[in-house]
Amino acid sequence: MEKLRPGKRGYPVWRMIKETAFVLMAAVLLSPLCFFADISAEEQDGQSHDAAFAETQTGSSTCYEIFVYSFRDSDGDRIGDLDGVKEELDYICGKGEDSLGCDMIWLMPVFPSPTYHKYDVTDYEQIDPQYGTLEDMESLLSACHERGVRLILDLPLNHTSTAHPWFTEAEEYIKSLENGQEGSAEDCPYIDFYNFSLEKQDGFEPLEDTGWYYEARFWAGMPDLNLDNEAVRDEIARILSFWQEKGVDGFRLDAVTSYYTQSKEKSISFVEWLTETAKAFDPDCYLVGEAWTDQDTYLQYYESGIDSMFDFAFAGQEGVIASVARGNKQAAWYGQRLVEEEEKLEEYGGLAVNAPFYTNHDMARSAGYYPNDGGARTKFAWALNLLMPGNAFLYYGEEIGMNGSGKDENKRAPMRWDEDPSASGMCKGPDDMDAVSMIYPALKEQEGDPSSVFSCVKKAIGLRQEYPAIAGGKTILVEKLSGKEICTLIRTMEGEKSILMVINASQNDQLVDLSVLEEEAEASAILRNKDSLTLTPYAIALLAEGEEDWVYLNEGCVLPEKSGRRRR
Ligand code: CA
């Protein structure tokens, strides 16, 4: 394929290609011959795949993040694997009663690596033997595509492992040099794959038994790649197309702010190169970047043309959602921040799709934020996250309120399918994990219980799919009915039912007087003469335009009585 030149900002070349492809696809679909032709199984796969893609682009996907090591073991070694993920596709993305109903999967790194977490890669074009084989990956991909589910891979490109052959060859070459002798890339190209130096610099580690240092911002075992080197970029382009050819639908870009630690502009321009390279091969490729930093900074990465950036402002123990759930911020703040963020995203020409999440593999699990309230705020907070516009990301185990904090291993504990840790399919988890006593029961005990964390998360995902305005629409804050305890929002989307959401962020029942909304055109059109609403603590009520009945999330929470004081 001819190498594409970067397009003008706001109208990149890959968008034009995508739109042309869309017109061609539409022409084929509309061709009258199609109506009479037998549709082969492959064509059906293709269609469901396209449908899933369309959802991602409008920003209405729900993506399940999986740490393969701890998710599901298929062969009895108690280490999770790709076949284990495949076995659980019904759970992750099926439509059944005990299914979550996600439509995208992000696998944390699956490439060979000396560590349990595998963020330090030794071969970008293989599968770690602990997880399976390339064939297992191909088989998982086709199983996903048969269901219209997209699969994205975690790609750590800032650094490799020191055990990567690029690094070991460079190290061997440097050790062969005389003291103080400068190396030459003509003799060993790999010395320019990393940033080696004879001087000790900030963020550099000593190369053992030599007078040399190498850049390693995260840890001595993770040498930073020299991303300015064309040869490195050629390798990366090949890695992207290697996986795209296998059918991988996109990539989660690890640690984008570290690409060029000293220069945000250079990091953004590298993300732009990655996006253009990936989309030149497959215009449908979905890219989401991790920039664990303040909102203004990570939003700037949308200048690169990347589809999504993770929305750190709403996530974690100190984020918008947890602050509102804890009562540190008033309820209305959730709506205010949403509106403000959507305005900022619009500055990127409507191409940016937000990627809200609540926790990930680097954060303390959310159930531990509110340990003694019977699940009321754990469920409430997940509902707030899943009601956000964009592609929402859910970290495995959060849907059953697993807890785990402190060292990283504790945040990556085995998925609790069953109370019995030796039950079939259960994983052993990382070696250095502490014994964590769980607050909520295993999945098996939560299924079918309408008050469980699982049921609330599942219901919220179902609402995202039933009402496209929830995930794909624009937020209006109804200020007349938003304050300390209540937040009222309308989500609108062209061609879809508008949704009114009333959120009770307090631990008390709230009788909401809706009559104050008579003068508000958007709200009264949805309300149609409803004049009041009662919300139990931390409950959320949704009303869709043209429908009679409210839908409730997290209603009827039973809050434990405070010691020495009776509620009610
Ligand atoms: Ca296994």
Description:
This protein has helices at 13-30, 32-36, 41-58, 82-87, 89-93, 134-146, 165-176, 230-245, 264-281, 295-300, 320-326, 332-346, 376-386, 443-446, 453-466, 468-472, 521-527, and strands at residues 62-66, 104-107, 150-155, 196-197, 204-206, 213-215, 250-253, 286-289, 308-311, 355-356, 392-395, 474-477, 486-492, 499-504, 510-513, 532-535, 540-544, 551-553. The protein is of the alpha/beta class. It has four domains: 6-41, no CATH class; 48-158 and 233-466, TIM Barrel (Alpha-Beta Barrel); 165-215, no CATH class; 474-553, Golgi alpha-mannosidase II (Immunoglobulin-like, Sandwich), CATH 2.60.40. The chain has an eight-stranded parallel beta sheet with strand order 10-9-8-7-3-2-1-11. The protein has a five-stranded antiparallel beta sheet with strand order 12-13-14-17-18, sandwiched between helices. Helix 13 (376-386) packs parallel to helix 15 (453-466). The structure holds calcium ion. Calcium ion (CA) binds at residues 73-75, 77, 79, 81.
Short characterization:
Helix content is 32%, strand content 13%. It is of the alpha/beta class and 568 residues long. It folds into 4 domains: 6-41, no CATH class; 48-158 and 233-466, Glycosidases (TIM Barrel), CATH 3.20.20.80; 165-215, no CATH class; 474-553, Sandwich (Immunoglobulin-like).
